[in-house]
Design goal:
about 475 residues; Serine Threonine Protein Phosphatase 5, Tetratricopeptide repeat; 2 domains; two-stranded antiparallel ribbon; two-stranded antiparallel sheet; 18 helices; about 45% helix
């Protein structure tokens, strides 16, 4: 142990000499705590440095996790799309054959914990930063807490128990090594503890985040209320009274559905009244969304090919408006073949339409329709069938569909599930919806492919969580592996 600690302090001392701040440190779990280690105790010397650090936290919504993997995880793991392209790691996700060396799994861990480390640094050093007025300090704490909670909500849904890292190392000494060591090599915290922290952070954001911002890419009270609604719909047991409460808070926040569904995706209504949290891109080399080019284009086979099962669901519902807004069929003859679709009518995701170069396409992560359908779930689960139907019908009327025919709690639950699938296709929700409603095994093991044939997926309970990355297990003996891996 003494030898290990000696090596550790040598490593940290060398790192301090090489870089004043650990902003460029590779964000593996063992280094979360020292991402902002400095030689003196003042992390941010003035308001400008603190604001720049907060901007850096927001910038992590423009990394590979949120430009690409977020949608692969939420859609290619579901019945809405196939992996597409040629990435073996994505094929594993699509076919429920993930192993602990999967590169997507490893990099997503790094991305999420890297963002958590940055958010921690801002959150923990607001008070010590000179030249910041108290009101702004409260807002910065709220914004960084929201982002930290958002990242942990991703992590806990993917892996279950995960390390709960809330502090960072700010000074080094031999006396402090017993305290520092568990920060650098944390064990997994229980799902219950992680959710308790997530809820605490989002509640802080409800209290102190601003009501509005210059655009929907910043944390607001509405975004905090929306996330609390989603969290309480996900934790076990679900707390439907809380879901209803926070959905109502969002609805009262001045949001409204756009009159036409396609207006969400035509790039003429960015940061609209329906959007609650939306990642903004300017279409420049510094602020371009390269992820949009991963889903559509004829230069190479793209990711997240829409599934036969989803297309059949749109057709069975007669939902032409949302189908055309969500999926476009193109002729790819002579370019590539595919086991699921003919070349002359090959589908692509159509919600992301500026897909060349440094795209200015925004990504909408939270919007009112999602919250209205969550409220419908809460009402249905608590016995208000008529209230649930009214909300479902509100969503359906926008796309010229008749009212739902669901007449009891069980059928309404399935009607809401279907409505969320068709309304939110390719927005990264489907996999998580199936998991939180307990429907993943039944639905995914019965997915149909071309001509109604079975795809033969074999999804078990253990497949609903990802493995802890083997690289993290190798570096941190306190981590334990998920069952089945």
């Amino acid at each position: 142990m003494k030898k290990t600690l000696y090596i550790l302090i040598i490593f940290i001392a060398a790192a301090v000499q090489s870089c004043e701040k650990f902003l460029d440190l590779k964000p593996v779990s063992q280094s979360i705590a020292i991402e902002n280690l400095v030689a003196d105790s003042l992390i941010y010397k003035n308001a400008s440095e603190l604001e720049a650090a907060l901007a850096g936290v927001y910038d992590d919504f423009r990394n590979e996790y949120f430009e690409l993997d977020y949608f692969v995880n939420g859609d290619a793991q579901s019945d809405d799309s196939y992996a597409g392209a040629d990435n073996p790691a994505n094929f594993q996700l699509d076919e429920y054959a993930i192993d602990a060396t999967n590169t997507n799994v490893s990099r997503d861990w790094e991305y999420l914990y890297g963002a958590i480390g940055k958010a921690n640094s801002v959150f923990n050093n607001v008070d010590a930063t000179p030249g910041v007025d108290e009101a702004r300090k409260e807002q910065i704490r709220a914004e960084s807490a929201w982002i930290r909670a958002y990242m942990y909500f991703q992590a806990v849904q993917l892996w279950g128990d995960v390390p709960l890292q809330l502090t960072e190392v700010t000074s080094i000494s031999a006396e402090l090594l017993p305290e520092i060591y568990p920060q650098l090599f944390p064990a997994r915290a229980s799902v219950a503890d992680v959710y308790a922290q997530i809820i605490s952070d989002f509640e802080l954001a409800v209290a102190y985040a601003p009501v509005s911002a210059t655009h929907k890419g910043y944390v607001t009270k509405g975004a905090a209320n929306a996330m609390l609604a989603k969290v309480y719909a996900t934790i076990e047991p679900h707390q439907w009274d809380k879901v209803n409460q926070y959905c109502d808070a969002v609805i009262a926040g001045g949001y409204s559905l756009l009159p036409e569904y396609d207006m969400l995706w035509n790039n003429e209504n960015e940061n609209s009244a329906e959007a609650i949290f939306e990642i903004n891109y300017e279409g420049t080399p510094q602020s371009g969304n390269w992820g949009a080019s991963m889903f559509r284009g004829l230069d190479w086979k793209k990711f997240n090919t829409p599934s036969n099962d989803l297309v059949a669901a749109f057709d069975a519902e007669g939902d032409q408006i949302r189908k055309e807004a969500s999926i476009i069929f193109l002729d790819v003859s002579g370019k590539w073949s595919d086991p699921y679709w003919p070349q002359i009518t090959f589908p692509f995701v159509n919600k992301y339409r500026i897909f060349t170069g440094n795209s200015s396409q925004n990504y909408i992560f939270l919007r009112l329709a999602d919250i209205l359908l969550l409220k419908a779930e809460a009402l249905n689960e608590t016995g208000d069938l008529a209230g649930a139907a009214a909300l479902v019908n509100q969503i359906r009327s926008r796309v010229n569909l008749p009212n739902t025919t669901a007449g009891d709690k069980a059928s309404m639950k399935l009607a809401i599930e279907k409505e969320r699938r068709l309304e939110l296709a390719f927005e990264g929700h489907r996999w998580y919806d199936l998991k939180r409603t307990g429907r993943a095994l039944e639905v995914l093991n019965n997915v149909k492919g071309p001509n109604g044939s079975s795809l033969g997926y074999v999804v078990t309970e253990s497949k609903l969580l990802w493995p802890i990355p083997q690289a993290e297990m190798d570096k941190n003996t306190k981590l334990t592996q998920n069952e089945g891996y």
